Amino acid sequence: MSTVTLSAARPAAVPGVLRLGLVRAAYELRVFFRERDAVVFIFAYPVIMMAIFATVFGQDGATVRAGDVEIPFAQYFLPGMLATGVMLSSFQSLAISISVERDEGGLKRLRGTPMPASAYFLGKIGQVLGSGLVQTAILLTVAATLFDVTLPSTVGDWATFAWVYLLGTAAGSVCGVAFSSVPRSGRSASAVVTPIVLVLQFVSGVFFQWDSLPTWMQQVASVFPLRWLVEGMQAAFLPDAVAGDVDLVTTALVLGVWFVAGLVIGARWFRWRRRDDG
């Protein structure tokens, strides 16, 4: 009589958090690009605003002058538009989209799956980086080809742009995740988030020269990350005479503090369910 030995089936290997995060990021990017209205707004808004302000302020060949240095208004506004683009693709996009997902019950269903919460947030960060890089590439291309803006020519300036961009994106992303719990519903999210971003743009030196703003407005803007994101971008894209005394150490500290604050607040108060769902 023969005996048959059955070997225990090995359980399938569970994908790691990083791999799940990459898969989730690919999914988030597909969903993002299917929302054509949001894509057009996020990609076109910085380009349109730069074109409007550069045309209005640059009439009859007017330039920004600092000592013996003159630059066109398009070049002066470019750092602010880059900073605005970062905030649109990170803070505003996540604060609104996560609120909508929560309101529709998507977050509740995700929480009931084996997927780690960290993989979900990694996917969101991947979506922000992917869409943000496309947006930045479009803005830089338009600025260089249509407005004859001179882009940085040194490795140091591009390195400054890179770390300011990445730190600003990280701070904006975690703050967007944390702030997504503020709107009472997905329908009210846009009405709550968008005015905050618009006000910060006007007081942070995005649309107007920083020195022309009232002192109290400068003090208020200096508390928030957008002002320092603008200043970091100016250090990379403007001549020293025009950018002024840029404090990159403070820029890094403020953005870093907002990144940590966003992490702490998000970890403490992030909600997976609607307010009326327990």
From TrEMBL:
GO molecular function, one term: ABC-type transporter activity
Domain ABC transmembrane type-2: 37-273
Gene Ontology biological process terms, A to Z: response to antibiotic
Any one GO CC term of the record: ATP-binding cassette (ABC) transporter complex
InterPro entries: ABC2_TM (IPR013525), ABC2_TM_bact-type (IPR047817), ABC_2_transport (IPR000412), Nod_factor_ABC_transporter (IPR051784)
Predominant location category: membrane
Location in or out of the cell: Cell membrane; Membrane
Membrane topology: Multi-pass membrane protein
Keyword annotations of the record: Antibiotic resistance, Cell membrane, Membrane, Transmembrane, Transmembrane helix, Transport
Segments crossing the lipid bilayer: 38-57, 77-100, 121-146, 158-179, 191-210, 248-270
PROSITE patterns hit by this protein: ABC_TM2 (PS51012)
Family: Belongs to the ABC-2 integral membrane protein family.
PANTHER family according to UniProt: NODULATION PROTEIN J (PTHR43229:SF2)
Protein name: Transport permease protein
